[in-house]
Amino acid sequence: MGSSGPVKALPPHWPSIFSTYRILSFGGEEIIHGHLRADLTEEDPEVRDLLEAWDGRSVLRRGPSAVHLVLERPSTDPSRIHWILHIALFGATLFTTLVAGALLQGVDPLATTLVELGGVVVPVPTGVRVEVLALGWPFALPLLGILLGHEMGHYVAARLHRIRASLPYFIPFPPYYSVVGTLGAFIRLRSPTLDRSALLDVGVSGPIVSFLLSIPVLWVGLALSQPIPVDPGDFTPYLIQFAGQPIRVGDGALLRLLTHFHFSAEIGSEAILLHPVAFAGWIGLFVTFLNLLPFGQLDGGHIGYALWGRRQRYAGIFFLLLLVPLGFLWWGWWFWGGVAFLINRGRLSHPSVVMNEIPPSRFRRLVGVGAIVMFLLTFAPVPVSL
User: Fewer CB in a 10 Å sphere around the end CB: N or C, the chain?
Assistant: First the structure.
């Protein structure tokens, strides 16, 4: 990530305040990370005068053995917000989730016909019925609210740490091939994470928001759901109806607890037919625990690296191996494990932050432990069974 050598971006007298320093690169950022000389502190006039002369961002952190100084500035103009792209992707995702919501209500707003092409049956929309499309609101609105909240949690935390970040990119997906009509959303970090405290804040903020938003959505949705005289099964005690076809879904400890408040007599003996609002909340919990897997640059990877440093890779290896037997219960674990492996370019370890040796505060470590508890509460061994 970096190399040492003459600091060409600094006046000649700057390196004299460092005992050691290195030059780092992150996209379009110029970064100099050094340790102050042992005889200097952040309050020394020599340091203060030089920092006032620096035309970029400067950050001082006291570590276990030295005071760290990071100098950062963009080498190019900051990226502009591509409003049209963000709005177009959100609009397309709103449409596809509305279609999915209508299909969950048992109606098809696109008047789809099935066409056989080369031996493969392909659904082809033939029109848009707006009055039917509107039936998808009870599903699309809470779902997009949870996804938007998740990504804006990351965005706000990044901005509070003065990390340049994009607005959320939503990913629409044809609802005939997905019961939710989207593959979620993501943001891009365009400047480096300087320390493990910032990394934990950015990583944990999204799951916390989606977790907190999903609970009231589930509570309302379960009140609208109903039990049906169907064997609930061992791992999938809930049903949804998608385009008239039943699909079983599973639960974790938190969802089972919420269900007991609404269906204490029926749980375990009958299946619960989830209302689309409840299913939106279910997806919120699914997104939460899926992102908390400790792989690479997933949210769980950020949190794991913030807590354990380079030992995070062992948690990633453990969970990747755990997905192998879990895949016999639900093949989707093999799929998501492969996706995480590809997204992280074959690496389970998280890349280093600039000031790696400075640990997060005790409070942040407690928040990280809370994220682990959140994962255990939302984890479903068999999320879906067709």
Answer: C
Asked whether 219 and 258 are in contact (CB, 8 A), the reply is: yes
Instruction: Give the end of a domain, one of 74, 102, 118.
Output: 74
SS3 274: coil
Residue 376: domain span: 137-220+280-385
* Burial (CB count within 10 angstroms: exposed 0-12, middle 13-18, buried 19+), residue 33: buried
Q: Based on the domain organization, do 284 and 167 belong to the same domain?
A: yes
Tokens of 266: 């029926």
Integer angstrom CA distances of residue 272 from 41, 105, 110, 239, 313:
63, 16, 28, 6, 39
CB 97 within 8 A of CB 141: no
Instruction: Report which DSSP code applies to 349.
Output: S
Q: Per the domain annotation, does 29 fall within a domain?
A: yes
DSSP string, 190-233: -S---BHHHHHHHHHHHHHHHHHHHHHHHHHHHHH-EEESS---
pTM of the full predicted structure?
0.89
Q: Tell me the per-residue pLDDT of 268-292, one tens digit each, with 9 for 90 and over.
A: 789 999 999 999 999 999 999 999 9
